[in-house]
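Q: Here's a chain of 363 amino acids. Please give me its 3D structure as tokens.
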Amino acid sequence: MPRPAAFFALTPSDLTTLQDWLRKSTLRQSLAERASILLLLAEGLTPKAVSNQLQITPPTVFKWRKRYLEAGIEGLKDLPRSGQPLKLGPEKINEILTLTTQRVPQEATHWSLRLMAKYARVSTWQVQRVWAAADLKPHRLKTFKISNDPHFADKVVDVVGLYLNPPDKALVLSVDEKTQIQALDRTQPMLPLRPGQIERRTHDYKRHGTASLYAAFDIMTGQVIGRITQRHRAREFLAFLQQIDRTTPTGLDLHVILDNSSTHKTAAIKQWLEKHPRFKLHFTPTSASWLNAVEGWFAQLERRALYRGAFTSVADLKAAIRQFIEAHNEHSAKPFKWSKTAEAIISSVHKANLSATINKLTN
């Protein structure tokens, strides 16, 4: 004969409380399960019958029956977990922020979640919460260089003015050269993409030579004029200017934004420009390539056509670049939009200069 179920009873107030729990739509599932266990036991069901009905294991039934008998309704709640407290006090938060911004760990050049958790004696989850609230990202690094051009403000106003208010009956062309583009081929064939497997390639490669690309980016249309050369001297730049002259409407002035490379300022270039007055050069400040719109297009070229490309020769590389330019002009070209004013840029640079000076004096 099976043993009869051990007597189990709920007090009237506990019975009412547990029934009220089950009526709540916001009650956690774990508490609803525990309340159901006790209510079924109080109806006279055996632990085995309760486990079958609720589809849980018998030890779970015995656990919560025991917890109720020892601590009542309060025994159904989760016990405090071991480890670090969930909430950090102001002192601990300030300690984490101070370590992050003013100290460097002995084991590394920058902080990681694990290192900070070790030094501050908290959990990685707590460090993550503090960093997120303070918008701190120690794992990231951004390069910068503050321009020391004595005519920085004047050049910024000039270039940004062209972006925000292009002159009538003129083209504004952002011009630069991407030099020493390598024709790289992998030592073994690439393994293609397939379900469950990313595309793979060997880490080593073969060099097949280099090429340079001159590009003129029309900010009004996004169209690009390109010229691929083996070298990047003044004569190649002059040939590119001549190509621009041939391929643009003769009745339009050409405002050319470019950097301060010495190849842009030779005597031969100046003589040619004197004979072609529709060309008007606008130089960006030194160390301010980010002000040249064509740099964004170069980034697209690198990301979409060069980085994952495999080129068996320089001719193969040149063909890929030409194909990208043609595809861009036909499908992807769109007007360039510049939103930041010259005043905002100059103010940001002044703040960066001040910050760098203060940091130098205090270290």
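Q: Can you summarize the key feature?
A: The chain has three domains: 12-76, 90-134, 152-190+202-346.
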